[in-house]
């Protein structure tokens, strides 16, 4: 797999589709390796005529790891933010947006259609706000403004996402990963066990790095509310969100669309916080139609 130096660190990436096509950059979420963008979706977008680029965010997958960097615990960090204190964090979402900008620069791409999922949507928001010249269009998938007044995750969703596995043995990691996927996944499109097992095992065999998501979560908490920043975004924006997302409820999608001038939103019943294969064609069509309209 190719790697580049972007924003001073090593980033692993891949790309699919015609090299001379309009580029589309996919940015994944918290603790999520780039291969959580299903190849079926990548190929569908490439089939729509885009040069599709995925990359591992810092501190996950095969990209640079910030070994030894200390981050405040999520509960303590959240409480400190509520009383106006801002502890030091190893890096911010703005730093991660600079990574994505650096990927485009390293590949010689002046601007791209940017698609971000969950934390990747937050990173994409920073990229669109701070580097408007690099973002042809923005698609924000099951993401949020960070407004603390919006509805909370369903009971168990955050716990499943942040709870550490019992051990680092492969079978335990696969069991843990499948449980997380089940808890935050789509109630209307449950993944068959064999498909879920194969996807989770591929992630575990590719890379296991439990410290990275802790620092990424610190970056999310540190970022706070982005509503004011979102009002600065000029890129044509599409918000995609599931009506049945247990981790980031659909109200967050509506708030994101309301904050970005001219943004459109499409919600889908039964969709949770994953990308079911049953929705790949529909999502690819929505993203491609939005990008082509620019």
UniProtKB/TrEMBL annotation:
Lineage top rank: taxon: Bacteria
Transmembrane segments: none
Pfam families: Abhydrolase_1
Natural source organism: Aurantiacibacter zhengii
Sorted UniProt keywords: Hydrolase
Domain AB hydrolase-1: 23-145
InterPro entries: AB_hydrolase (IPR050471), AB_hydrolase_1 (IPR000073), AB_hydrolase_fold (IPR029058)
GO biological process, one term: glycerolipid catabolic process
Protein name: Alpha/beta fold hydrolase
GO molecular function: triacylglycerol lipase activity
